[in-house]
């Protein structure tokens, strides 16, 4: 870990990383539970597309934890390497732009993973 804010690379510390990892675990659990219900039901397979949301949420949590980067903070121009609630503003415009690009990348990747999971479940 770098232990310091790096534009577009690292904007959260250990406590925030742990929160993102737990969000990933929760999203994965919801995805698995919903998939179990949907596969065991008589509902039309198109209902399995609903797996996209929790799967994207799980992917987002895990990606943010792994990359040490909070997409929400990136969009809002913030960083937090300390305890929860100690967010700091990003001062430089170039740094905020780099953070927004990384936040968009995480968001798009999470959405693509969620959609991929949902499509795979629908076709199964």
- Overall strand count: 2
In what range is the share of β-strand residues?
under 5%
The N- and C-terminal alpha carbons lie at a distance of 40 Å
Spans of at least 5 consecutive residues with low confidence: none
Approximate helicity band = 55-70%
Number of domains: 1
Rough shape? elongated
- Class per helix and strand makeup: mainly alpha
For the CA atoms, what is the radius of gyration?
Answer: 17 Å
Order of adjacent strands in the largest pleated sheet = 1-2
Average pLDDT over all residues: 96
Number of helices, where a helix is a run of at least 4 consecutive DSSP H or I residues: 4
In short:
Helices cover 65% and strands 3% of the residues.
């Amino acid at each position: 870990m770098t232990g310091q804010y790096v534009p577009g690379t690292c904007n959260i510390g250990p406590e925030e990383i742990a929160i993102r990892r737990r969000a990933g675990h929760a999203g994965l659990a919801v995805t698995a539970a919903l998939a179990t219900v949907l596969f065991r039901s008589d509902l039309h397979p198109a209902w399995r597309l609903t797996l996209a949301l929790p799967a994207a949420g799980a992917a987002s949590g895990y990606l943010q934890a792994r990359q040490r980067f909070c997409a929400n903070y990136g969009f809002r121009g913030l960083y937090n390497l300390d305890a929860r609630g100690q967010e700091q503003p990003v001062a430089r415009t170039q740094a905020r732009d780099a953070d927004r690009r990384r936040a968009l990348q995480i968001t798009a990747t999470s959405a693509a993973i969620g959609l991929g999971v949902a499509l795979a479940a629908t076709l199964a």
